[in-house]
Write a structure and sequence with these properties.
Helix content: under 10%
Largest sheet: 7 strands, mixed
Shape: globular
Number of helices: 0
Number of strands: 11
Distance between the termini: 40 Å
């Protein structure tokens, strides 16, 4: 049973924080790159953040740098996205993805179902 399950989304006000979680019941989680994407209504899915196998290397979209933090707990097969200083522009469905390869050229093997984040002004 392969499953990628995001949680932690919700309705918040501008300036609030949320912590998204993704429990990845997939093979060899510790050797996979983990990433977060988001998709707002009427827009393409966009990259948000990625972390390496160890969590020591991370990458962020310019729009979230300094506000979002990605982390992972390999013992729990879980990746997190701490989101601070949320704005209405962050409103989107957030997806968790697992990948092999490199951070430069990831190959996404698994995707979650998404969790809705809505930020009011």
């Amino acid at each position: 049973q392969v499953q990628m399950a995001e949680s932690g989304g919700g309705l918040v006000q501008a300036g609030d924080s949320l912590r998204l979680s993704c429990v990845a019941s997939i093979p060899t989680f510790s050797n996979k790159l983990m990433a977060w994407f988001r998709q707002a209504p009427g827009k393409e899915r966009e990259f948000v953040s990625m972390t390496s196998w160890s969590g020591m290397s991370t990458d962020y979209a310019d729009s979230v740098k300094g506000r979002f933090t990605i982390s992972r707990d390999n013992a729990k097969n879980t990746v997190y996205l701490q989101m601070n200083g949320l704005t209405p522009e962050d409103t989107a469905v957030y997806y968790c993805a697992a990948a092999t390869g490199s951070m430069r050229s990831p190959r996404y093997d698994y995707w979650g179902q998404g969790t809705q984040v809505t930020v009011s002004s």
